[in-house]
Amino acid sequence: MFGAGRCARVIGPGLTGLAAGYGADLLFADPRHGHPVAVFGRAAAALEQHSYADGRAAGAWHTAALVGAVAVAGAAAERLARRAGPWGVAATLAASTFVALGGTTLVRTGDRMAAHLAAGDLAAARALLPSLCGRDPHSLDADGLARAALESVAENTSDAAVAPLLWAALGGVPGVLAYRAVNTLDAMIGHRSPRYRRFGWAAARLDDLANYLPARVTAALAALCAPLVGGSPREALRAWRRDAARHPSPNAGVAEAAFAGALGVRLGGPTRYAYRLEIRPTLGDGPAPSVADLRRATRLSRAVQAAATVTAALLTASLRCRGR
C-alpha cells in the first residue's frame, strides 16, 4: 500500500490528465480537420483494400491488427511520457482522452438538430442526421428525426463520452486509444450490411465487450441526473430493468432505455437503415419524443458526461492508490 504522500503523487497525474482531457473536449470539441480518429479511419479503409474477405477470420485479423497497433503505440507513448516525469504522463493522458472523447460534438449536434426541427427545416435536419447515426433520413418525418436524434444522443453518450473516460481510468493511454479504435471500427464495419455481415463480426463483438460496463454506468448516471431535466430516477431504473434486454444491442438498449425513462418518453419502433428495416422494441413509457425532449436529452447527456468524469477520477484514485 502507498503512504498518503506517495499516493497523492501517483494519482495526481491521472486525475489531472482526465480533467484536462474532459475540459479540452468541452472547450474545443472535435477538430474539424486532421482529427486523429479520421486519420485512423483512413488507415483502416486502406488496410481493408488488402485484408477484406467475406469471412469472420479475415475480419478478426483486420480488427486485431488495427487495434493492436494503436494499443502498442499508446503504450510506447506512455512509456516515453514517464521519462518526462509525472506531468508528462498527465499531458499524454489528457491528449489521448481529448482525442477519444466526442461528447461535446454530440450534444452540439443534437442541439442543432433540435433547432432545425423547431424551425420546421426538415431538409437541414435530414442533412444533419448522418452526423448522429446511420439511419436513412429521407424516410423520416419531424417526429422520426427527433426520435432518431434522441436515441443517438443516448447511445453515444455512452460510446463517445462515458466509455472513453472509463477506459482512460482503467487502461491509461493505451486503454483509451485502443477503445477509440475499437469503437471506430465498429462504426465502419460492425453493421449487418451484406459486405460486412461476416467481415465486421469481430469488430462488432469486441465493441460490445468494450462497452458493456460503460453502458451500464451511463444508465446509472442517467438515473442519478434525471432530476436535473425534470425526470425521475425511479422511472429511468424501471425502464432500464424492464426494457433494455429486448433491444438487439446489449449496450445501446441499456443507455436508450434509461434515457427514455429519465425523460418520460417512448423510444423504439420501426428503424430504417440504408440496407434494412428493423422493428425495434418499445423502450420507456409516455409519448413519442418532441423537440423539447431532444433538448432535454442533450442537457441530460451533458450532466451524465460531467458525472462520468467524476466517476472516472474516483476510479483512477482508487486503482492507483492500491498500486495498480
From TrEMBL:
UniProt xrefs under InterPro entries: Cobalamin_biosynth_CobD/CbiB (IPR004485)
Membrane topology reported for the UniProt record: Multi-pass membrane protein
Pfam families found in the cross-reference section: CobD_Cbib
Transmembrane helix listed as a keyword: yes
GO biological process, one term: cobalamin biosynthetic process
GO cellular component: plasma membrane
Keywords, in A-Z order: Cell membrane, Cobalamin biosynthesis, Ligase, Membrane, Transmembrane, Transmembrane helix
Superkingdom in the source lineage: Bacteria
A molecular-function term among this protein's GO annotations: ABC-type vitamin B12 transporter activity
Pathway in which this enzyme or protein is active: Cofactor biosynthesis; adenosylcobalamin biosynthesis
Compartmental location: Cell membrane
Function: Converts cobyric acid to cobinamide by the addition of aminopropanol on the F carboxylic group.
Annotated family: Belongs to the CobD/CbiB family.
NCBIfam families in alphabetical order: cobal_cbiB (TIGR00380), PRK01209.1-4 (NF002276)
HAMAP family linked to this entry: CobD_CbiB (MF_00024)
Protein name listed in UniProt: Cobalamin biosynthesis protein CobD
Native source species: Mycolicibacterium hassiacum (strain DSM 44199 / CIP 105218 / JCM 12690 / 3849)
Upper classification of the organism: Bacteria, Bacillati, Actinomycetota, Actinomycetes, Mycobacteriales
